[in-house]
Write a structure and sequence with these properties.
heterodimer; A: alpha+beta; five-stranded mixed sheet; four-stranded antiparallel sheet; 15 strands; disordered C terminus; B: alpha+beta; Ribosomal Protein S5, domain 2; globular; PNPase/RNase_PH_dom_sf (chain B); cytoplasm (chain B); RNA binding (chain B); ExoRNase_PH_dom2_sf (chain B); Exosome complex component RRP41 homolog (chain B)
Chain lengths: ~375, ~240
């Protein structure tokens, strides 16, 4: 005899917190009983059919390294949950879920030392590359952590940073070569930590892999295991929720290791396809650019840029179809092992290029606001 | 750096399977409905519980269960260097979320609909294992407030350095860059409610390290039960029973 919760977000649009979508009791019972009889709304052990996208935008600049790690680059992860993805997300400062997501991916990547940070060092103790990963959630179909993790890995694998060399009078000047002069370098990624999420329910011993949005609303506990293909567990996060016996947890860990191999392969295949396309595009590229010189004097970093570049960058902020420091990777998530669609490419048609410009513009603006000095090579794309 | 020397002693002279000294005190904050101070070695944490009381933000009210809120803060003076922002940074938000979900799972919230339970945890001295100490302190504070729970939640951390599983890491061992496993455990029900791990480990070693942490949790549970029993005796004595 419990009260039916009305899931009608329109009715309570005015009170912000009531926007959190709660399933009706009937829906809840349906899902729970279905699970008890081993059925699922969509297939077990498969990524949900719903189309989910994550956009990763990349920014990087030369910064001063952390004091205690003068030889390593830095990596920071920012998440943005836009209400477009889910009405319960709010604009503005990230909520708990966004922070938890960011920290989990951060732990998976940083703690397991997936990316080689020392290769990002330019001048020990003075200048290192800082990588910034921006995760924008476009559509929430449940299990954001796994999807965000895959997207972050794909972006890291396809990212290219400009090559720079030391020069100048006393060997302290760093010249960043724009991509036309010298090919940009990929990041050194040692291994791929894959996040696999399990959902636990209050009925005894019910566990699902990769919960959907509806299941997430009903489930009583969740555990995310970040594991790489060679079976090393990089991170585990089970933040409270229903208690689970230890042997269940070990079972989940082993299941996760198996899944990781599959997902790693999918990512690698997709990345390879993307890289091939990118290589073939390079030939068409037409460029004007000015190298930017960065010099370090007494620890103060000043950026001397070619005089005309400054105005160009302002006026071209709208027109440049791809900012050189952002790689947009759109990945459609479908984990049926046979067909993996390649990621939508940037310059295939004129139409998507416009859409993509506006997306890039948004994040570029954000990035510009928070950055002090930037090195940028400019690339102007030949119209296709 | 050597964290376990050839004789098998750690940096502070403990054995690998030895936990730090525990100390708990109930009723430290007189104004709160329930409160406790919990110390694990040099880590000192104070928890205060207010509730069940009326929900302050009516839109968050739930008709069939109590609302549990938790706030984790670190005092400015708790760490070696003075901290700038004690709360609101990402780590504190995450830990607040984690503690809230851990306690929520064991509080019988359906017995207190339309009400709110606030848990405030503050770290006074941080020397590794603050998360665990906070959960232990919160359990004691909730018990002191008389809030019905399924079971006591105890928590302990463990790690793996110099190829040895170590129980209850202090700050130096924690910041060594090795794996750090925090487990929240329900001793009577024999269930794991909180599990966090970072840094790479193969699966079978994870099992060992997790098992060690669970043993630590069981030991803490025994201690907490003693403390609660002693506290009840004191209350009886003061009431002249």
């Amino acid at each position: 005899p419990s009260i039916t919760l009305i899931s009608a977000p329109e009715a309570s649009m005015d009170s912000r917190l009531a926007n959190t979508w709660r399933p009706t009791v009937n829906e809840k019972k349906f899902i729970e009983t279905a699970l008890a009889s081993n059925l699922r709304i969509d297939d077990y052990n498969r990524k949900p059919i719903e189309y989910r996208q994550l956009t990763i935008n990349f920014g990087r600049q030369l910064v001063q390294p952390y004091r205690e790690r003068p030889n390593e680059g830095t990596m920071s992860i920012f998440t943005e949950f836009s209400p477009m993805a889910d009405p319960s997300f709010e604009l503005g400062s990230p909520g708990e879920a966004a922070i938890e997501l960011g920290r989990m991916i951060d732990r998976g990547l940083r703690g397991s030392r997936a990316v080689d940070m020392e290769s990002l060092c330019v001048l020990a103790g003075k200048l290192v590359w800082a990588i910034r990963i921006d995760l924008h959630i476009l559509d929430n179909g449940g299990n954001l952590i796994d999807a965000a993790n895959v997207a972050a890995l794909a972006a890291l694998l396809t990212f290219r940073r400009p090559e720079c060399s030391l020069g100048g009078e006393n060997g302290q000047e760093v010249v960043v070569h724009p991509p036309e002069v010298k090919d940009p370098l990929p990041l050194i990624v040692h291994h791929l930590p894959i996040a696999v999420t399990f959902g636990f329910f209050s009925t005894e011993n019910t566990m699902v892999l990769d919960p959907t949005h509806s299941e997430e609303a009903v489930m009583a506990g969740r555990m995310t295991v970040t594991v790489n293909a060679s079976g090393g567990i990089c991170a585990i996060q089970k933040a409270g929720g229903v208690g689970v016996p230890q042997r269940e947890i070990m079972r989940c860990l082993r299941l996760a290791s198996q899944r990781a191999g599959l997902i790693t392969k999918t990512i690698k295949d997709a990345v390879e396809v993307f890289n091939k396309e990118r290589a073939s595009r390079k030939i068409k590229r037409h460029s004007t650019s000015v190298a930017a010189t960065v010099s370090v004097e007494d620890g103060i970093t000043s950026l001397r840029e070619g005089p005309h570049r400054q105005e160009k960058s302002n006026s071209n902020a709208e027109q440049t179809s791809e900012d050189s420091d952002s790689d947009v990777v759109t990945m459609q998530e479908k984990l049926s092992s046979e067909d993996v669609k390649p990621p939508t490419l940037l310059t295939d048609l004129a139409e998507p290029e416009e859409q993509q410009t506006s997306r890039v513009k948004k994040t570029t603006k954000d990035a510009v606001k928070s950055k002090k000095a930037r090195t940028r090579g400019e690339r102007r794309r030949a119209p296709t | 750096m050597e964290f376990v020397n050839p004789e098998g002693l750690r940096l502070d002279g403990r054995r690998p399977m030895e936990m730090r000294q525990l100390r708990a005190e109930i009723g430290a904050v007189a104004r709160a409905d329930g409160s406790a101070v919990f110390e694990m070695g040099n880590t000192k944490v104070i928890a205060a519980v207010y509730g069940p009381r009326e929900v302050q933000n009516k839109s968050q009210q739930s008709n069939d269960q109590a609302l549990v809120r938790c706030e984790y803060t670190m005092a400015n003076f708790s760490t070696g260097d003075r901290k700038r922002k004690p709360k609101g940074d990402r780590r504190s938000t995450e830990i607040s979320l984690v503690i809230r979900q851990t306690m929520e799972a064991c509080i019988l919230t359906h017995l207190m609909p339309r009400s709110q339970i606030d848990i405030y945890v503050q770290v006074l001295q941080a020397d590794g294992g603050t998360r665990s100490a906070c959960i232990n302190a919160a359990t004691l504070a909730l018990a002191d407030a008389g809030i019905p729970m399924r079971d006591l939640v105890t928590s302990c951390s463990s790690g793996y350095l110099n190829s040895t599983p170590l129980l209850d890491l202090n700050y130096l061992e924690d910041s060594a860059g090795g794996p750090d496993v925090t487990v929240g455990f329900l001793p009577k029900l024999d269930r794991v409610t909180l599990l966090q791990m970072d840094a790479k480990l193969p699966v079978d070693i994870v099992e060992n390290v997790m098992q060690l942490a669970i043993e630590g949790c069981k030991a803490i549970a025994t201690y907490i039960r003693e403390v609660l029993l002693e506290n009840t005796k004191q209350l009886e004595y003061r009431r002249g029973l």
